[in-house]
Design brief:
- With 220 residues, this protein is α+β, with helices and mostly antiparallel strands.
- The protein has 2 domains: 81 residues, Glutaredoxin; 108 residues, Up-down Bundle (Glutathione S-transferase Yfyf (Class Pi), Chain A, domain 2).
- Helices cover 51% and strands 7% of the residues.
- The chain contains 10 helices and 4 strands.
- It has a 4-stranded mixed β-sheet with strand order 2-1-3-4.
- A hairpin with a 2-residue loop joins β3 and β4.
- The radius of gyration is 17 Å and the shape is globular.
- The structure holds 4-Maleylacetoacetic acid.
- The site of 4-Maleylacetoacetic acid has 10 residues, from α2.
- Keywords: Cytoplasm, Isomerase, Phenylalanine catabolism, Transferase, Tyrosine catabolism.
């Protein structure tokens, strides 16, 4: 086995990137030790655009995970890799219908909400319109998530076991608060977010507990 295959995984991460945060939660839940390599999405126009990092992730985004001698990108693909190679503390239910529900909620958030309100899109939309834009897409998506949860949720998004859906939901709720979305119409989302707040794996993955979190939290 090569040295890189047994090295401690390295996660290229940004403290308040919701996609990095999903993977941090999954790594923590599965108790996989890893080192963080911070990539600032804002310093000098964004370190994700430098030549060196483009070699790691040609999408010029975080996260990227170096693990088992491979470099993986895209948070959902990474979570599935972790699930398939580290089945301890499963993040997908056994039941096929419940699995479909987990994937549905993951997809709503990771395709239907977050990409529309991420940094590159908001820069394009412009400072003046960005808050209204982000609120629009998060509200639209949360309506669908809340509806899905009305039949799937137990203690967590799907039943009583934490799944990939929860790894995606909590960071998206943080983004919703950041853009001052009125969350009162989504009581199930709020209840699950509150439930997971004190979970150690979620707490350790929180932006405020990251090595690159600035001492003064900007809230723009
Ligand atoms: O500090 C910043 O303002 C820069 C970037 C982010 O927040 C990350 C995002 O683009 C949002 C997200 O991950 O959903």
């Amino acid at each position: 086995m090569s040295l890189s295959a047994i090295a401690k995984p390295i996660l290229y991460s940004y403290w308040r990137s919701s996609c990095s945060w999903r993977v941090r939660i999954a790594m923590n839940l599965k108790e996989i030790p890893y080192d963080i390599k911070p990539i600032s999405l804002i310093k000098s126009g964004g370190e994700q655009h430098c030549n060196e990092y483009r070699e790691v992730n040609p999408m010029e985004q975080v996260p990227a995970l170096q693990i088992d001698g491979h470099t993986l990108i895209e948070s959902v693909a990474i979570m599935h890799y972790l699930e398939e190679t580290r089945p301890q503390r499963p993040l997908l239910p056994q039941d096929v219908h419940k699995r479909a529900k987990v994937r549905e909620i993951v997809e709503i958030i990771c395709s239907g909400i977050q990409p529309l309100q991420n940094l590159i899109v908001l820069i394009h939309v412009g400072e003046e319109k960005k808050k209204e834009w982000a609120q629009h897409w998060i509200t639209r998506g949360f309506r669908a998530v809340e509806k899905a949860l009305s039949t799937s949720a137990g203690k967590y998004c799907v039943g009583d076991e934490i799944s990939m859906a929860d790894c995606c939901l909590v960071p998206q709720v943080f983004n919703a608060r950041r853009f001052h979305v009125d969350l009162r119409p989504y009581p199930i989302i709020l209840r699950i977010d509150r439930e997971l707040e004190s979970n150690p794996a979620f707490r350790a993955a929180h932006p405020s507990n990251q090595p690159d979190c600035p001492p003064e939290l900007p809230n723009k």
